[in-house]
Recover the amino acids of this structure.
């Protein structure tokens, strides 16, 4: 089968498609024919680390990609919840799902039925980013009527976060650049702050929850925006968010920082499915790349300017057979 892996070292490493052995599902896994996958910043951050640590001696054993949407073509001996022919989506991410491949084996506890009203493309980019938003709001116990500030509202995580926060009944103030104001408003944000024009950390407003999808901020930089007992939730993808989460855990600080570490489970994916099917949630697609152009998709993600999600079309619509 075809699968994406990394060739070369460090910053000049390229994502390439190669022949790999088709996996066999374990007893609690299904084998999914992958129709669509995506790129997440974690992918290229991990590539940089791996290409620096593992020398390129003709092959590296891993296949990249986390998110997938596709069709079950085989199932393990103990699988009862899914059948061959089911359309599913999800991710594994205990390091990597190996999703950017013709076929991926994945535990049934990490997938759910694909929302019936959306395409594999819209479903296949959603799991990691949308679950990050949903699980961030769960750890913050975001409630109806609460005021939330979402920083990085136009990215992969942010576009889902705005919609999920609205679906939970929160009043949403979104931070994005002038480029994305209309987009973020169209997703339901009640108020929008253009970070290129205004220093939002000096705003008069105060919030019950601050959700920083960028991880460029910390509870300290946003202290004046937080109500008594307010929570700062970070995706800790950058050093500032990461250190803020560690300091908050080690020392008593004025405002607690919570760090979301996304993981896939069927219950949370089912919640997303329900939101998609109620049309309370939709995927914002920044761009779509063919499997052969996967390196370009990574380059696009590395710009840090994606508006929503980047899709990888693993199965072309006119493709009939696979090896
Ligand atoms: N902990 C976890 O489990 C977890 C899970 C998922 C993601 N993450 C991390 O979360 C971060 C975001 O992920 P993502 O998928 O949303 O990334 P992304 O899609 O690449 O984010 C790109 C977006 O960020 C916006 N942006 C850039 N700088 C900004 C700023 N200073 N203020 C506001 N918006 C800004 C850009 O808008 P403009 O072009 O308008 O600036 C663009 O729309 C990454 O660091 C990722 O590694 C962590």
């Amino acid at each position: 089968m075809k699968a994406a892996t990394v060739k070369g070292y460090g910053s000049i490493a390229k994502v390439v498609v190669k022949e790999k052995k088709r996996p066999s599902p374990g007893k609690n896994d299904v084998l999914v024919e992958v129709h669509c996958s995506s790129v997440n910043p974690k992918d290229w951050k991990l590539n940089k680390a791996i290409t620096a640590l593992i020398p390129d001696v003709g092959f590296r054993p891993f296949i990249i990609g986390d998110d997938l949407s596709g069709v079950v073509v085989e199932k393990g001996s103990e699988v009862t919840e899914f059948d061959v022919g089911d359309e599913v989506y999800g991710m594994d991410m205990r390091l990597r799902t190996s999703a950017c491949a013709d076929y991926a084996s994945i535990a049934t506890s990490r997938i759910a039925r694909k929302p019936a009203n959306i395409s594999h493309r819209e479903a296949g980019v959603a799991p990691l980013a949308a679950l990050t938003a949903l699980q961030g709001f769960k750890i913050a116990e975001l409630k109806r009527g609460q005021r939330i500030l979402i920083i990085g509202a136009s990215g992969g995580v942010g576009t889902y976060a705005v919609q999920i926060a609205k679906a939970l009944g929160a009043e949403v103030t979104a931070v994005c650049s002038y480029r994305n104001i209309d987009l973020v408003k169209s997703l339901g944000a009640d108020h929008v702050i253009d970070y290129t024009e205004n220093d939002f950390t000096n705003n008069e407003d105060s919030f019950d929850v601050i959700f920083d999808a960028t991880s460029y901020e910390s509870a300290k930089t946003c202290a004046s925006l937080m109500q008594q007992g307010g929570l700062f939730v970070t995706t800790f993808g950058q050093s500032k968010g990461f250190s803020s989460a560690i300091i908050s855990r080690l020392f008593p600080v004025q405002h607690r920082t919570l760090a979301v570490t996304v993981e896939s489970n069927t219950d949370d994916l089912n919640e997303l499915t329900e939101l998609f099917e109620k049309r309370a949630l939709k995927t914002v697609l920044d761009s779509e790349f063919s499997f052969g152009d996967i390196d370009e998709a990574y380059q696009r993600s590395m710009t840090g300017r994606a508006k929503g999600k980047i899709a990888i079309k693993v199965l072309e619509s006119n493709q009939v057979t696979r090896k």
About this structure: The pocket of NAP is lined by residues 40-42, 128-129, 132, 151-152, 154-158, 175-177, 179-180, 195, 213-216, 235-238, 260-262, 301, 304-307 (CB under 6 Å). The chain has eight helices and 15 strands. The chain has two domains: 2-126+283-313, 128-259.
